[in-house]
Amino acid sequence: MSSKTEETPCIHFLIVPLMAQGHSIPMLDLARLLAGAGPLVTYVTTPVNAARIRPIIDSTVFSGLSIRFPELRFPATDVGLPDGCENIDLVPSFDLYIPFMKALSLFQNSLKDFLRDDAAAGSPPPSCIISDNFLAWTTPLASSLGVPRLAFHGTSCFFLACTLLLQQHRTEIEGAVTEKESFAIPGLPQAIHVTKSQVSWGSNYSDPEWLILLEEAQAAERGSAGVVVNSFEELEPWYFETYRNLSGKEVWPFGPVSLHKENVETKAARGKASAVDKEHVLEWLNGQASGSVLLVSFGSVSSKSFRQIVELGSGLEAAGWPFIWVVKEAAADSGWPEVEEWVAEFERKVGERGLVIKGWAPQAMILSHAAVGGFMTHCGWNSTLEAIAVGVPMATWPHFADQFLNEKLVVEVLKVGVEIGVEEPTVAFAMEKGSEEVKVGREMVEKAVVRLMDDGEERKERRARARQLGRLAAAAMAEGGSSSENLNNIISYISENDKRKKLKNLEIQKI
């Protein structure tokens, strides 16, 4: 992407991620891209989160990039969370999610202490804060520092535009349709049908504090100078234009960051340490035919019931294609012995046709392998964009939040996916042990896999579209591409603002 030049001004980006893998990973990539272009970058983290990305921190420091990783205290125990509960995927039960969000708010005290000590040590003050939009407190913090705040969204611009359109037409929608009745989102160039339960995920939770958090995040965005998104202009151009018009904000798409040039070691370490040796995974993939393997993975947060895992595995077995299945519920520290036992027997039954990974997987590395021809995904935006970036079609299994709209983008707008058929969101982020919930039966799994992976004309057309999007993604990230230029534009915008601020201060001193 952009390369450092002698003309790059001495500006300082302070990056404050939400402590959740789907948000922190692309913000880490953004931090490295910005540092590669010359500015000083401070990426705020905590001891537990830093340990997860230690190989990336070490390689980044070794490369000489001007980027720092302060490990600040996370106030987990202050709000009743277990010590070390510093990431949303470590929250042990659903009723502790609100306390975790409160801890994120209290985390600002650790950051303020760091900034004060950093200034006393003679470090340059921040020129800009790039913050996850959920961290509403970074807007008044940026104001107190006299610097712009750019809001990071870990979603597609399709989701952002649809959300604003739904808010704009809320009154007419509320009076016209029931909770589970399908309706077309007003204002779109094509008919995209959803239900209220699929697009109003905040209302699925009884605690009104959830809605307060969402409202605070929206207010924080209104107070931001602009928005950054891990996407690219060519993927969803109409939706970028619409979102800019509706929000009145400048929007800079800078991705897909999963295409950021890096070696296999670094790509395999994105997120946290893999639960399987990458060489073993590569050896297994190298033994498979091109485009024959299905990757099955559902992100770091949502868990499935034991019965749902059985149905999913039985569908994969019946479909007949080689697969890699990431089963985090079977990890050694998961505490689900019945899952571990069933998965062990399942591995014996499928033999070499399947590779089961029990825990975190090197997803970006796997998706980029030539043997992978399909991806069964929860439609989290990071995972969706990683597949788009390397031209891999998807079978879509959304759970909550933005995922149902991401499914619509993949299946109906881009036409690079097939839906499994989930209609209702999962109420809780994490499945409580003992739940019997089954949303997708084995026949649904088998049907979706066959449709995604068979050699028919439909698959060829879908694969051709996916490969074309992959080429557009690579072009966007290349020198002179749209995302590369947007990165330069972000730096130029902050540089000009910094110059104006310094000039104004000089004028005040002369008075």
From TrEMBL:
Coiled coil feature spans: none
GO MF annotations, alphabetized: UDP-glucosyltransferase activity
Record-linked CDD domains: GT1_Gtf-like
Entry EC no(s): 2.4.1.-
Protein name as catalogued: Glycosyltransferase
Pfam hit, one: UDPGT
Keyword set, alphabetical order: Glycosyltransferase, Transferase
Enzyme class of the recorded protein, top EC level: transferase
Family, as annotated: Belongs to the UDP-glycosyltransferase family.
